[in-house]
Automatic annotation (TrEMBL):
In eukaryotes there are cytoplasmic, mitochondrial and chloroplastic isozymes. GO terms for biological process: aspartate biosynthetic process. It comes from Lachancea nothofagi CBS 11611. Coiled coil: none annotated. Keywords: Aminotransferase, Pyridoxal phosphate, Transferase. The lineage of its organism: Eukaryota, Fungi, Dikarya, Ascomycota, Saccharomycotina. This is Aspartate aminotransferase.
Length: 411
């Protein structure tokens, strides 16, 4: 009876806790800028038209059922997903250097990477950006991996601390693991430009570091899959002769599959010399990944995978999906502009241009924890203590209200 009496009470997850506080708030006007999930202009979750269509196709199929998928997941998903990420005529795909398996969305892919690292790269340090998505620390540390940080955000200039970033790459122990946000960096919404990406990747190669790209927002950030895959594809090109690349791919945001947990984990192998059979290496890796999935999930979830696979493998649905991503990204960009313009109109102290300069779901507003607290307490505007605001929570009905609230707490 005393067995569990000493268990520590952990603080609630800060992000999901926001949702709870918000649901208990009885004020008539509330604004949720917490969790990163797309909302339409009425503040409602949005089922993508391409997804609605895909669901009809799936359910009309005479072979429709709820059977188990194979351990590696749905091949039509993993292959389609690799093409989306790497590009149709990617060299690594043509040279058959890519291992792809289905994962429990992006988080599951990161966890799989972490398990793989513990087994095959156990003593390596995992470098995360400062700041990063809070779950990155939890995922790698829970697996017993040691994490370190590389400078990223310069609060004074609200821009990339490239110098600090490069010097962290330089001083990290040779062969460390660097987790890079493929696009739409969470929480800052700040991405390196193309030139900066080139110097980051060159510095990484120089020190034989290993790259893990976390791709959670491809197509969601700019509305253009190719544009948002720039860093991943540059990395593939630069590292093709040097080392494997790990990629964690989520369909939560760009297909709106949040709760369906559709994602993939890819390992792109470098070109091998003639003495090594790449097929043997791939088989061995696949067998190890299968062992991980079998013991943890048995097999990955089917329904979301079928939806995404249907979207990716039907020309018309793919076309509709591309339009859907433009719908989401352009509404978010519009909200960034309206928030900035409203703050300027109110003569809110400070410069707010970073809100429109940042990309993806979030804006790192620069609001202090005290200001965030006041926004919640006095205006029922909820965001994360770090000042990260999910721009998707803004709409034409509440953006002015939010600007006035920000203006009040800043003044
Ligand atoms: N990485 C980053 C940087 C993210 O922001 C997210 C979603 N918040 C994920 C990975 C994975 O999310 P999911 O497990 O829902 O695909």
């Amino acid at each position: 009876r005393t067995l569990f009496n000493d268990i520590d009470l952990l603080p609630p997850d800060s992000l999901f806790n926001i949702k709870q506080r918000l649901s208990q708030d009885s004020r008539p006007v509330k604004v949720d800028l917490g969790i990163g999930a797309y909302r339409d202009d009425n503040g409602k979750p949005w089922v993508l038209p391409s997804v609605r269509e895909a669901e009809k196709v799936i359910q009309k199929d005479p072979s429709y059922n709820h059977e188990y998928l194979g351990i590696g997941g749905l091949t039509s998903l993993t292959q389609g997903a690799a093409k989306v990420l790497l590009g149709d005529d990617n060299k690594a795909l043509k040279e058959k250097r890519v291992v792809s398996v289905q994962s429990l969305s992006g988080t599951g892919a990161l966890h799989m990477a972490a398990r793989f690292f513990t087994k095959f790269c156990g003593d390596k340090l995992v470098y995360l950006s400062d700041p990063t998505w809070a779950n990155h620390n939890a995922i790698f540390e829970t697996m017993g991996l040691k994490t370190a940080t590389y400078p990223y955000w310069d609060p004074a200039t609200k821009s990339l601390n490239l110098k600090g970033y490069l010097s962290a790459i330089e001083s990290a122990p040779k062969g460390s693991i660097f987790v890079l946000h493929a696009c739409a960096h969470n929480p800052t919404g700040l991405d390196p430009n193309q030139e900066q990406w080139a110097s980051i990747l060159d510095a990484i190669i120089k020190k034989d570091h290993i790259v893990l790209f976390d791709s959670a927002y491809q197509g969601f950030a700019s509305g253009d899959l190719d544009r948002d895959a720039f860093a991943v594809r540059l990395g593939l090109e630069k590292l093709a002769e040097v080392s494997p690349i790990f990629i964690c791919q989520s369909f939560a945001k760009n297909v709106g599959m949040y709760g369906e947990r559709a994602g993939c984990f890819h390992i792109v192998l470098p070109r091998q010399d003639q003495s090594v059979s790449i097929e043997n290496v791939k088989d061995a890796i696949n067998s190890q990944l299968a062992k991980i999935t079998r013991s943890e999930l048995s097999n990955p979830p089917a329904y979301g995978a079928k939806i995404v696979s249907t979207v990716l493998n039907d020309e018309q649905l793919t076309e509709q999906w591309h339009k859907d991503m433009v719908t989401m990204s352009s509404r978010i960009i519009k909200m960034r502009h309206q928030l900035r313009d409203n703050l300027v109109k109110l003569h809110t102290p400070g410069n707010w241009d970073h809100i429109v300069g940042q990309t993806g779901m979030f804006s790192y507003t620069g609001l202090s924890p005290e200001m965030v607290k006041r926004l919640e307490k006095e205006h029922a505007v909820y965001l994360v203590g770090s000042g990260r605001a999910s721009i998707a929570g803004l709409n034409s009905g509440n953006v002015e209200y939010v600007a006035k609230a920000i203006n009040e707490v800043v003044n």
